[in-house]
Design a protein that fits this description.
The chain is built from 14 helices and no strands. The longest helix has 38 residues.
Amino acid sequence: MNTKVITIQYLRGFASLYVVLTHLRLIYNVPEAGLFYEWTDFGFSGVNLFFVISGFIITFITPEERGLKAVVQYLKKRFIRIFPVYWIVLLSLVVLGVFFPPKNVNMNVLNILQNFLLVHDYKNSILGVSWTLEFEILFYFIFCFTILNSKFRIEILLFLWILFPIFRLILPGAPFVNSILSHRSCQEFIMGCIIAIVFKKYTFKIPFVFPLVLLFYFIASPFLFRYAITLPGSLKSFQGLLEYSIPATLVVFSFVFYEKSNNPKIQNFLLLLGDASYSIYLIHLPIIIVLKKVLFKMTINQVLMEGLFILFFILIVISGILFHKNIELKLINWFRKWLS
């Protein structure tokens, strides 16, 4: 079996760009009218897609080795993948905060240290998207249980998938339970893990049009729930699952099994976007902050602002790719050598 699922990389690129669109819209005030505004309003659902993808990747690339040694090796690889690049971006924001102090973020030493360790309150995030990395770290530790006994990996994951919502019923007042364990992203991560387990064992024939239809459904689902679908009161608590989690899961399932059953031609630019997706995801907000500081001092009409929106989007993508090639990859290689 290949060690890399190419379509997962395509989806990672799509998810990161979808999130970028939303943050650009929120900051640069695209007119609150028309389909474009509505579409970019739901770009945050790219995060839901990220969580499913993350669960898939972790399960797919983790060998079936068991025991404490395998856990240590797994955590070492995850540390190298997440922290060094994040620290570089976070450090740049801390330095930027000296010249442009943020209004709603505490920049004291304790909060900066908590941000570096990814143990901070999301309301005190110096890098706005870092709350998702905190969930990633949680997922990594959850997955350690399946490495300790990989023979029953799918059973453990299914048990946790059912158990997390029950925590909220048993301990409704516990902050960690309400904000973390019962969070929808935990279920999305486990869904991705289960897809990977099934992917390793089975093949389903998926026609070309199927993944595209489901990707369209993923994009359209928030529109449907805003304008066409109203759930009864007893089902309201499942709206997030139906609106975001299940569509994201179906997209990942359809894309990876289409690739496995059809072996499509590699699209190099989409693959590059996927490889650079983590860099794009991390650096887009610092770039937006700098651009906003510059634009704040200028008088720009709305038509020109919409044109700048597209230009800035392209700038962020190019910057993310350059950051990936010149900083992210070199950091990862250096830490691999150092920790080996």
